[in-house]
Amino acid sequence: MRPMIIRVLTIFFVLLAGGTVVTAPAQAAPAPTQFIQDLGDKVLKIVADKTISADVRKTTLSSAFFDNFDVPYIGKFVLGRYWRVATDSQKADYLKVFGQYVVAIYADRFTAYGDVKFSVVSQTKVDDTITAVESTVDRGGGAPIINIEWRVEDTPGGYKITDVVAENLSLSVTKRDEFGSVIENGGGNVQALIDMLKSKVSGN
Description:
Elements lengths: L2 H15 L2 E3 L8 H17 L6 H15 L2 H9 L2 H4 L2 H19 L10 E9 L4 E9 L7 E10 L2 E9 L2 E2 H15 L4 H13 L2
Parallel strand pairs: 1-2
Antiparallel strand pairs: 2-3, 3-4, 4-5, 5-6
Helix pairs in contact: 1-2, 2-3, 3-6, 4-6, 4-7, 6-8, 7-8
């Protein structure tokens, strides 16, 4: 996996787990922009309690991911052409473990970072339902500021994040390349990927 994508997802969990979210006044923010701001604010109120356990923290991160990201859409896109050859059982199994995998591999990484400043700066309408929300992450200490674009879709169930793009690298595309390699190395069998994801989730 490319280092930039690792940093971006780690920073996402940093924001959820105790980073500093710099927001504009709520009444002045367009809805998709406010959605991204609220993503950090909502969870910060929960994890500010230093008495919570690591398990509770991970559960909070998991809930935030499943509630705010379009996991089925991203998971299907990431599987790419292999979605068509997967059985119905494999599809259901894969989508269930995909979100668990993303949370499991990144939930513990945020502890390596200090306080960060997350600023939502603008939004651009992509089409009738998709808005690109631009943001920056300042890690301080002279580290380069990271530009992050969140693809937010207006769905019947509310706003959902469908992709995260950092420095022109798409999370979905990067994971598709990685997962495709796992399947190819497993003889073209989607089960090889599912087994790998389950292994990662279980910590094996």
